[in-house]
Structure to design on (246 residues):
């Protein structure tokens, strides 16, 4: 049987209207992972070789030129949304919601895996690169090494996972879009706050986002695959297709 006949068979057997959207999402996820991986390794190579990033100094000089008491107070509050204690508190609430409200065991497992894995990545990567911060500021969690940013990575995984949970709901489209927009803005604002408060370089933030994106997509993709595997109807359908094809 030639390729055209093979393609025609699968087109007749599978409702393409139900698979094109997930297929596009998978391709987009793979593309984002590749781009994030390239970005991280580019940044990591230069940090390892102790190269200077021009954009780091340009952005930091700009923030320094617009410093004000009001902005500082705003960013002091925003940066707390990426702190360890806040991420821990929101993570506990999210786990309780998934467990008690949604009865989503896989969601709980992979959410915990995402958050815990992010913590491991931060600890390991900071130890490997040991980049000094632009300045130490314990009052803003500005201790230890700088690359990559723990606030950026942790907030991207936490709020990114919550965005995913909101996005897969079926009701209240406008409310969901508003919540997703606000959470996305929060992720960006947390990164900006770390640069404004002079405890991270912009390259630290980008690296944190990149690692967070890679790990988040891995966790969500693995969870979705597990759900398909556990769905007996879907497994039976695929098995029948393959068996019939043989």
């Amino acid at each position: 049987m030639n390729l055209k006949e093979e393609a025609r068979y699968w087109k007749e057997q599978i409702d393409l209207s139900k698979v094109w959207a997930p297929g596009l999402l998978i391709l987009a996820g793979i593309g984002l992972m590749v781009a994030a991986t390239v970005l991280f390794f580019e940044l990591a190579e230069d940090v390892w070789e102790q190269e200077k990033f021009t954009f780091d100094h340009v952005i930091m000089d700009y923030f320094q030129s617009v410093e004000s008491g009001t902005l500082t107070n705003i960013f002091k509050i925003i940066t707390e949304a990426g702190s360890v204690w806040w991420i821990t508190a929101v993570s506990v609430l999210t786990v309780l919601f998934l467990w008690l409200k949604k009865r989503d065991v896989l969601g709980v497992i992979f959410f915990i895996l995402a958050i815990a894995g992010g913590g491991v990545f931060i600890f390991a990567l900071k130890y490997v690169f040991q980049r000094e911060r632009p300045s130490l500021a314990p009052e803003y969690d500005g201790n230890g090494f700088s690359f990559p940013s723990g606030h950026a990575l942790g907030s991207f995984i936490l709020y990114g996972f919550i965005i995913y949970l909101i996005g897969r709901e079926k009701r209240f489209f406008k409310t969901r879009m508003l919540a997703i927009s606000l959470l996305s803005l929060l992720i960006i604002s947390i990164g900006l706050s770390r640069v404004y408060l002079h405890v991270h370089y912009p390259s630290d933030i980008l690296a944190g986002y990149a690692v967070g994106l890679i790990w988040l997509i891995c966790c969500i993709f693995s969870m979705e695959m597990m759900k398909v595997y556990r769905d007996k109807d879907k497994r039976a359908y695929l098995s029948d297709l393959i068996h019939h094809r043989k």
